[in-house]
Amino acid sequence: MSDQKPDGWVDFRAVKEAVTMRLLFEHYGLDLDKYKAIGDERKLSCPLCDGKSRSLTVNIVKQNFQCFSCKARGNVLDFVAKKEGCTIKEAAHKLAVWFKVGNTVEPHCLTPENKSPDALTILAEIKARVNQLEQLLQQKA
């Protein structure tokens, strides 16, 4: 029997074991150690609903989250699906690519129109700077 996996296949369990809530929040620029700790839980404003109060609880041992404002809850897959506006399968693919879980390569579901607005903004800024540099080089030539 072959260990070959079908295209688009990702091991959800491997992703959930490899990517902790702490790693995921760091990916989004949030250091959970900077937020109020109550035992294994961290309280912070929810990046999913932009709640102003500390309505989001992240349990760093159970590896789950719950927002008392927008009612979102779940594990790392659920968080990414909600944050990125994609399916659980697409979230698993994104996490596998971002954190290099298994032999995953970027699948078709991660086309530029499905990436986060932050990545698109950065890409647009890079393209604009490249165009500026090309114009400067042409002027000096």
Order of helices and strands: HHEEEEEHHH
Strand order of the largest sheet: 1-2-3-4-5
Largest sheet: 5 strands, antiparallel
Mean pLDDT over the residues: 82
Named CATH architecture of the largest domain: Alpha-Beta Complex
* Helix fraction bin: 40-55%
Q: Compute the gyration radius: what is it? A: 19 Å
Q: What is the CATH top level name of the largest domain? A: Alpha Beta
First and last CA, distance? 62 Å
| Stretches with pLDDT under 50, minimum 5 residues | 105-117
Quaternary organization: single chain
What is the count of distinct domains? 2
Structural class: alpha+beta
Number of beta strands: 5
Question: What's the shape?
Answer: extended
Task: Name the beta content range.
Answer: 5-15%
Number of helices: 5
Under CATH, the homologous superfamily of the largest domain reads Zinc finger, CHC2-typedomain
CATH structural fold name of the largest domain: DNA Primase, Chain A
In brief, what are we looking at here?
The chain is built from five helices and five strands. It has 141 residues and is an alpha+beta fold.
Give a written overview of the molecule.
The protein is of the alpha+beta class. It folds into two domains: 95 residues, Alpha-Beta Complex (DNA Primase, Chain A), CATH 3.90.580; 31 residues. Helices cover 41% and strands 12% of the residues. A five-stranded antiparallel sheet has the order 1-2-3-4-5, with helices on one face. A hairpin with a 5-residue loop joins strand 4 and strand 5. Helix 3 crosses helix 4. The radius of gyration is 19 Å and the shape is extended. About 9% of the residues have low confidence.
